[in-house]
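Below is a filled-in request sheet from our internal design queue. Each sheet records the structural input a requester submitted and the sequence that came back. We keep these sheets so that new team members can see what a complete request looks like end to end.

REQUESTER: design group, bay 2
PRIORITY: normal
MODE: inverse folding
CHAIN LENGTH: 269
BACKBONE (tokenized):
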């Protein structure tokens, strides 16, 4: 603590300011020296919903869905393979900035379309912690926009916004319940922007030390079109800073891929 006498001479004032600045940098360096953890708040790419929690200030995650396969749909939409990524940075303890994309994408159509998918700019804000006594979940809000920055084959005529309310809640038997509710936007076959209600969820439980399993699902619906899937997966955290995950799912509607498979990893910095 810096003590200010009633009558400060200039050099006393400058010395005190120097002490305050030094304390600030010492505290920042101490915070930065603490060991990063991929378990707090956890990887968002591991399952369908995103958590309500944000990275601590100054921390970063690199997440990758290194292999993401979606099969042909029942209405004959082509299969595709992508290698996506999510970069996360804690701007403040409760505010996180994010950059994500499906990454390099290959579509099994007549033209074998391939290239870099558009970049998505995203902000997540942690609003409230969980209140177990009142059975109230942790709450976060996430706002994103898909840009036109990518290969021409995947560009839209619009920048496409999305919004999600993110919830995390602890259930009996140490089951973690994570769910999102919001909307997404996309460009339809007629070149017009359309909006869909978006719901995703996951139930997760640790079954062995550092190994958790989950079941999950999503539904996006609007304008008479619905994509929906259910699946399951696991996450393994062999090191405090590293996690690996996989997720398999089956489509429930005509326009959802019959089968999807994802394998990825996440690293904390």
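RETURNED SEQUENCE:
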């Amino acid at each position: 603590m810096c003590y200010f006498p009633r009558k400060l001479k200039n050099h006393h004032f400058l010395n005190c300011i120097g002490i305050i600045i030094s304390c600030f940098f010492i505290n920042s360096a101490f915070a930065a020296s603490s060991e990063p953890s991929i378990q707090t708040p956890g990887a968002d790419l591991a399952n369908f919903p995103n958590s309500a929690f944000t990275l601590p200030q100054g921390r970063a995650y690199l997440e990758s869905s290194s292999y993401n396969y979606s099969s042909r749909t029942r209405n004959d939409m082509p299969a595709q393979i992508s290698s996506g990524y999510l970069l996360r940075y804690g701007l403040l303890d409760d505010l996180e900035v994010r950059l994500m994309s499906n990454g390099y994408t290959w579509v099994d159509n007549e033209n074998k379309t391939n290239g870099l998918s558009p970049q998505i700019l995203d902000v997540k804000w942690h609003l409230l912690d969980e209140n177990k006594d009142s059975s109230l979940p942790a709450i976060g809000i996430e706002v994103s926009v898909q840009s036109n920055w990518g290969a021409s084959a995947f560009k839209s005529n619009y920048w496409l916004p999305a919004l999600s309310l993110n919830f995390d809640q602890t259930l009996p038997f140490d089951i973690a319940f994570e769910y999102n509710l919001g909307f997404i936007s996309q460009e339809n076959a007629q070149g017009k922007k359309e909006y869909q209600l978006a719901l995703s969820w996951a139930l997760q439980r640790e079954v062995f030390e550092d190994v958790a399993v989950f079941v999950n699902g999503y539904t996006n619906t609007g304008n008479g079109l619905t994509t929906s899937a259910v699946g399951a997966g696991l996450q393994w955290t062999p090191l405090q800073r590293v996690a690996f995950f996989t997720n398999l799912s089956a489509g429930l509607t005509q326009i959802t891929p019959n089968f999807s498979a994802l394998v990825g990893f996440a690293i904390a910095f």
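SHEET NOTES:
- Residues 21 and 188 are 54 Å apart (CA to CA).
- The chain has one helix and 13 strands.
FILED BY: M.R.
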